[in-house]
Fold this sequence. Notes:
By secondary structure, the chain is α/β, with parallel strands linked by helices. It has helices at residues 40-47, 81-86, 90-108, 115-134, 139-149, 166-180, 196-208, 220-226, 245-280, 287-299, 366-373, 408-413, 424-430, 447-459, 477-489, 501-504, 526-547, 577-581, 585-624, 630-661; strands at 2-11, 14-24, 29-33, 55-59, 66-69, 184-188, 212-216, 229-234, 237-241, 328-337, 340-350, 355-360, 380-385, 391-394, 465-469, 493-497, 510-515, 518-523.
Amino acid sequence: MVSxxxxxxxxxxxxxxxxxxxxxxxxxxxxxxxxxxxxxxxxLKILAGMQSPTEGGVVVPxxxxxxxxxxxxxxxxxxxxxxxxxxxxxxxxxxxxxxQHLLDELSRRTDYESEEYAALLEKIEFLNxxxxxxxSDNMEAEMERTLLGLGFKRSDFNRPTSEFSGGWRMRVExxxxxxxxxxxxxxxxxxxxxxxxxxxxxxQFLAGKxxxxxxxxxxRAFLDNVTNRTxxxxxxxIYDYKANYTKFVELRKERVEQQLRAYENQxxxxxxxxxxxxxxxxxxxxxxxxxSRIKQLEKIVPIEVDxxxxxxxNIKFPPAPRSGDFxxxxxxxxxxxxxxxxxxxxxxxxxxxxxxxxxxxxxxxxSTLVKCIMGExxxxxxxxxxxNVKIGYFAQNQAQMLDPELTVFETIDHVAVGDIRLKIRxxxxxxxxxxxxxxxxxxxxxxxxxxxxxxxxxxxxxxxxLIxxxxxxxxxMRTKDILKDAIKxxxxxxxxxxxxxxxxDGLVEKVYEFGGGKVRENLGGIYDFLHSKRIAELSELEKxxxxxxxxxxxxxxxxxAKAPGQANSSPATVPTxxxxxKLSYAEQKERDKIVKRAEKAVKKAExxxxxxxxxxxxxxxxxxxxxxxDDTLAAYSSARENLExxxxxxxxxxxxxxxxxx
Length: 662
């Protein structure tokens, strides 16, 4: 479909990559990977026609359309959200207007036998077929589904785009791009401005509805769920793998090991040849053999081993000063802006040493609560900061707070204490600041470099409560791993606001979900939360579908109750009237009894789950307050077992109901 031929790019006489060739096929979903500065974004710009290569070229057939979403872009603010999104269908709207114009002209014509009249009919027929093929009749529904999937609310549709932040306006551009359905979709870090639910929606869209995709992302889970091919840029060359990112990492390791073995064998061969030449260089009887070895040595093509950064720095931060048992306690905390209640009745406590995540759609109050904790904005209720708590706060605009006149080295040197001062250059290297960067002033750094520097600076300060708001947006995978390991070994308490599932996995032990004006506590890691949330959502949808079975026209495609893991099972449906008439009255009556019995079993299981969850919440509250006697622990263990059994019963009841209503 798209062919890249012998592509090469140079910057200031320094080759970025050269002799790059590959083909993008119709259904390819490709992850473009490589370390920062390898040329990933440059390659996307060349494919989008926004930059010219130094050598080689890209062949894009005339009928192939290409859509490109950069990391940052200028957006217009001259209309409402829905009207801006509607621009994605400008070509279709133009065709509809043209069709209407032709129909109006047709209604005025009376020369039915003329060639002009026949040509007009033919053009109308062509436009009708084109519009039907494009599905323009579903334009409004497609816009609504896409905007809701990317996290917008219906109440946002008529708001001016100027009221939205830069991140939300990037979502508008992404929505327009997805709605255009280009033959090749080029995405540069599309998840940076999305929350977890929007990322999951985008994953499903790209996997099920898009054509060819080439994307750059540092979100491992996103890459694994979307891509089926990985192209790596390394040392100016590319390596193409028919595998997703996780499999690519394994295959790459095998490739480098093979290269290393071949390199070592070649070095041994070269050493043996050189040794032979040196030993017999001055022996006349060996002159022919020596000359033969010299020619053999000249013909050897050196084997290159791919550049792999095997350095692994274990950052050990200064010990966190000991805080009280509960660094943070919230009692009935709420925040409203005028008539808009962001959240209310937030009640929870975080123990010393816990690492928790704040998750939820953007705008539901995650960063707002962080600002309440920091005392930056007023709120209702009671929020207590524990004894001897020293907060280290990384805001999304933290980079702007650095001193622009200091150098990179000085910025870290001013906060480093103890032995860590001896490793400042190593630490900076771990956060992708090379020898040529350490003496640069902060004011000349890019936004991503400032973010990394601010993160490293914060992690070196002696704090015992870290609050990190979207810390991974500008970090590549290696740096994220270093940061994650550092946080895991941190002895203090950590609150992370993040949409990066892979980063949160194995890092947090509790998840606070923000949504619907509430803050809900969920025990377990991020994937435990996502798993349980999916069940909760489906059970609620099932309840609604039973209550409104007669109005199937508005039913959600996910309105059936599913057992966990059955993401591809068919939705529950109600028999049509034609099917029901085939049954006798007695059979129909008996069938209705069985269906109602199954429906009642589902509701009973849901009520039992709700009761046990409430009981668990009370017991957890007792345990959090220090009531840890044997009876309470036994009751807690029993309640957990009963809840697992109730979940199993609910799954069985839901499956039975689903089978009956299929």
